[in-house]
Amino acid sequence: MSANDFRMPQELNFAGLSAAEEIVSLCKMLFGPAAGGGGCRAFYTPEEWKARGEEYGCDSILIVCHDGGSLAPMFNGDYEDDLAYQTLRRGLEAKGFYVECCTSWYSAVYRSAKAAQVKPQVEKILVLSTGHMPSPCPVFGPLRAVSHEFGFIVFVTERDALEGTKVPAWLQPCLEVARAQGCSHINFDESGLLLPELQRWDW
User: Fold this and answer.
1) What is the pTM of this model?
2) What residues contact 139, with CB distance under 8 A and at least 6 apart?
3) pLDDT digits (tens, 9 = 90+) for 26-83
4) Phi and psi (nearest 5°) for 89?
5) Pick from 128, 111, 134, 146: which is nearest to 196 by CA?
6) Which of 61, 120, 133, 195 has the lowest tally of Cβ within 10 angstroms?
7) Is 169 exposed, middle or buried (0-12, 13-18, 19+ CB in 10 A)?
């Protein structure tokens, strides 16, 4: 990743800057701190884009180039990463923005007309003890997991999306509990709950 992938244009207005910062935050949440734009500069002002002679997105608040790197599956549905694709859209919507794909390699972000009415998105997280993990750094299989100081946060994926994949046996009961409670994530935390219905490991 180039250090300039996520450089913010100095001329970007407040709305564009807010949208860009939210995109970077979501990207690093999904793909970790090393997430980047594949060596390409990610963000442009609409004025810069118009000056380049580009046809689409010049009336937006932000242009995002996503030709490879971690941003690509967030903006381009052809990558078939539904989690990244939907996480971006939900995250931007919660901040009062929406995205339109202009080509396969760049998109435009707009301020929602209903921005003033947008309410914060609240999701449920199941907090479990790391004692329900078989080791300090277990294998999560196809599930996306992000480490933190006291454990891991796992993105809960629906069964249909996991069909044909190998979910680790230890993780399957935890996912079932999370789905039954309507949770979108599991936070395995060293101070979390130990549930009697889930297997416990001592390591």
Assistant:
1) 0.55
2) 168
3) 998 999 888 877 778 899 999 999 999 998 999 999 999 998 889 999 999 899 999 9
4) -65, -40
5) 128
6) 120
7) exposed
Angle at 68 (CA atoms; ends 63, 71), nearest 5 degrees = 55
Residue 157 in tokens: 């994926």
- Please state, in angstroms and as integers, the Cα–Cα distance from residue 122 to each residue in 9, 180, 182, 184, 185, following that order: 31, 17, 12, 10, 12
8 Å CB contact between 39 and 69? yes
Look up residue 23 and give its two tokens: 């995109």
Is residue 53 within 8 A of residue 73, CB to CB? The reply is no
Residue 173 in contact with residue 199, Cβ under 8 Å? yes
Return the amino acid letter for 111.
R
Count of CB atoms situated within 10 Å of the CB of 71: 29
Using alpha carbons only, give the angle 102, 105, 110 rounded to the nearest 5 degrees: 40
Q: 73 exposed, middle or buried (CB, 10 Å; 0-12, 13-18, 19+)?
A: buried
Q: How far apart are CA 56 and CA 63, in angstroms?
A: 10
Pair of tokens at residue 36: 């980047």
Going by DSSP bridges, is the β-strand pair 62-65/43-44 parallel, antiparallel, or unpaired?
Answer: antiparallel
Determine the Cα–Cα distance for residues 121 and 30; give it in Å rounded to an integer: 17
Can you tell me the distance from the alpha carbon of 144 to that of 58, in angstroms, rounded to the nearest whole number?
35
Structural tokens at position 27: 């990207």
Cβ of 2: how many Cβ atoms within 10 Å?
14
